[in-house]
């Protein structure tokens, strides 16, 4: 059974409940969100926005499912670039009560397969905070390698924070 599927507008209430329950758990790793972003209406709006970018070929938003098929998190490819770059950025989170079951590891493997298969991409990138070793391990288990440190790269938890950058390349691509 797949661990992820495309996000839909109907997921808004369940995502809102899950994000509210995980607000404190996710806060150190996320941009600051206003209170209304956590409501079903706020999530409906956020889903509409990302699905519009999906329709333009710029994003691929999936939810992560647990073994019962309930939503356990989200994983999204953003900034899908074509042309000579064929690259995208990967972001993800899994609900605290379902951490440590291999869900993020499996979800990243699935997104990688879609990215290098159907989407025909050459490269995926992910950035983690320096002390987010848990996230670094799920990336490394999926073949991502550290490529450097980006100073003050993303505004996380209200501060421009350094990120360790990782990438994985499509090994099927020829060198030329
Ligand atoms: C980082 C995060 C996504 C990890 O999610 P997760 O679902 O717990 O990750 P996994 O279960 O795949 O891997 C975590 C551990 O579970 C273990 N595990 C248990 N069952 C497993 C299985 N069947 N397959 C693979 N790993 C398994 C792994 O060994 C791993 O332990 P280790 O890293 O100490 O070796 C999650 O902690 C999270 O959402 N954190 C907050 C947000 C965040 O940091 N997002 C990423 C920003 S860069």
Describe this structure in words.
The protein is an alpha+beta fold and 176 residues long. The protein has helices at 12-21, 23-26, 40-55, 103-116, 133-141, and strands spanning 4-6, 60-65, 71-81, 87-94, 123-129, 145-156, 159-169. Strands 1-2-3-4-5-7-6 form a seven-stranded mixed β-sheet, sandwiched between helices. Residues 26, 29, 92-94, 99-105, 128, 132, 134-135, 137-138 line the site of coenzyme A.
Tags for this entry?
176 residues; alpha+beta; Aminopeptidase; 7-stranded mixed beta sheet; 5 helices; globular; binds coenzyme A
How would you briefly describe this protein structure?
Helix content is 30%, strand content 33%. The chain has helices spanning 12-21, 23-26, 40-55, 103-116, 133-141, and strands spanning 4-6, 60-65, 71-81, 87-94, 123-129, 145-156, 159-169. The protein is an alpha+beta fold.
Assembly state of the chains shown? single chain
Rg measurement, Å: 16 Å
Q: Which percent band covers the strand fraction? A: 25-35%
Give the CATH architecture of one domain. Answer: 3-Layer(aba) Sandwich
The H-and-E topology, N to C, reads as EHHHEEEHEHEE
Number of helices, counting only DSSP H or I runs of 4 residues or more: 5
What is the CATH topology assignment of one domain?
A: Aminopeptidase
* Main beta sheet: 7 strands, mixed
Q: What topology, given as strand order, has the largest sheet?
A: 1-2-3-4-5-7-6
Helix amount? 25-40%
> What is the class of one domain in the CATH system?
Alpha Beta
What topology emerges from the helices and strands here?
Layout: E1 4-6, H1 12-21, H2 23-26, H3 40-55, E2 60-65, E3 71-81, E4 87-94, H4 103-116, E5 123-129, H5 133-141, E6 145-156, E7 159-169
Parallel strand pairs: 4-5
Antiparallel strand pairs: 1-2, 2-3, 3-4, 5-7, 6-7
The structure holds coenzyme A.
């Amino acid at each position: 059974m797949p661990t992820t599927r495309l996000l839909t507008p109907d997921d808004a209430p369940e995502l809102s409940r899950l994000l509210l329950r995980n607000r404190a758990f996710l806060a150190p790793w996320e941009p600051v969100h206003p209170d209304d972003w956590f409501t079903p209406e706020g999530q409906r709006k956020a889903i509409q926005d990302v699905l519009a970018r999906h329709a333009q070929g710029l994003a691929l938003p999936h939810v992560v499912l647990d073994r019962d098929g309930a939503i356990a998190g989200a994983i999204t490819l953003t900034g899908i670039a074509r042309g000579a770059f064929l690259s995208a950025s990967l972001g993800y989170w899994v609900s605290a009560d379902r951490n440590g079951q291999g869900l993020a590891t499996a979800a990243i493997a699935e997104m990688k397969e879609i990215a290098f298969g159907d989407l025909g991409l050459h490269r995926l990138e992910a950035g983690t905070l320096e002390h987010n070793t848990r996230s670094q391990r799920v990336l490394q288990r999926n073949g991502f390698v550290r490529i450097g440190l980006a100073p003050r790269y993303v505004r996380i938890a209200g501060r421009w924070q350094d990120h360790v950058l990782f990438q994985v390349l499509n090994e099927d691509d020829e060198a030329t």
